[in-house]
Write a structure and sequence with these properties.
Strand content: 35-45%
Number of helices: 6
Shape: globular
Number of strands: 8
Strand order of the largest sheet: 1-5-4-3-2-6-7-8
Length: about 250
């Protein structure tokens, strides 16, 4: 979900379209500090240089973005089982005190490429619980309609994340932007705040248009990156993998 500028504080709803590839790179980036993703820059810039040369893309500037989030589900993990993720994103800096409720909905997987819709609404932090309980926002209303749920779903947070991202937006030959991210996630189970966090590294690339030129260039990037990393893109969502990792560690 695109983060608004410091001057843009008016509540609003956004709908996004996303085509993305994601790779787990824990083993490749094992020497870097997960709390300081810029320590992996030598690897990241090497990958970016090769991808840009192969695609003929123009590189942007690297910057660091930090996000905190809570991920919600029902006790029987109804959302995860249906390719859905509801999360509350926490803003920092000039927008401290506000955040986003975001529903991400998997439309389909295509040879490792995830195609998804995002429904987001900005609101004060203190409104999250009420909006989820009453369905009084577009993401939660969409979630209930998607699951054909007439009664309010029993939604509660199950994992807390801090994501630290080294991010760059390339410009493709077609003129479309292509964000690339090296992302480290620090996760805790909500029911055990004293637990040691789990760390995972991810390399991600996406386009936010259905234009066939941009998707074709994204697919070419995926071929190059898979060759560089020696692995295929992950065909499961990040919340699915994190939920499984936390359950495995808890012995459940």
């Amino acid at each position: 979900m695109t983060q608004p500028s410091g001057e843009d504080t008016a509540p609003r709803t956004e709908l996004g379209l996303e085509f993305e590839y994601k790779w787990r790179v824990d083993d490749v980036v094992q020497s870097a500090d997960p709390t300081a993703p810029e320590t992996a820059d030598p690897l990241l810039t090497g990958w970016v240089d090769q991808v840009a040369a192969e695609l003929g893309a123009e590189q942007g500037k690297l910057y660091t973005l930090v996000q905190s989030s809570l991920h919600f589900d029902t006790p029987d993990r109804l959302l995860l089982r249906n390719g859905l993720n509801l999360r509350a994103l926490i803003n920092y800096g000039g927008l401290k005190g506000t955040g986003w409720l975001v529903l991400k909905e998997t439309v389909r997987w295509c040879a490792g490429r995830r195609e998804a819709l995002e429904f987001g609404e900005m609101m004060p932090h203190q409104a999250f619980a009420q909006r989820i309980r009453t369905r009084d926002c577009a993401p939660v209303d969409r979630l209930h309609n998607r699951l054909l749920a007439d009664e309010p779903l029993e939604l509660a947070p199950f994992v807390r994340l801090v994501q630290r991202r080294r991010k760059m937006t390339m410009t493709l030959p077609s003129g479309f932007p292509l964000p690339i991210t090296l992302d480290t996630t620090q996760s805790w189970p909500v029911d055990d705040e004293a637990a040691e966090p789990l760390f995972h590294w991810w390399f991600e690339a996406e386009v936010n248009t259905s234009d066939s030129r941009a998707i074709g260039e994204l697919d070419r990037l995926a071929t190059v990156v898979s060759g560089l990393l020696g692995s295929r893109p992950v065909r499961r969502t990040k919340p699915e993998i994190l939920a499984e990792s936390l359950l495995t560690r808890a012995g459940r």
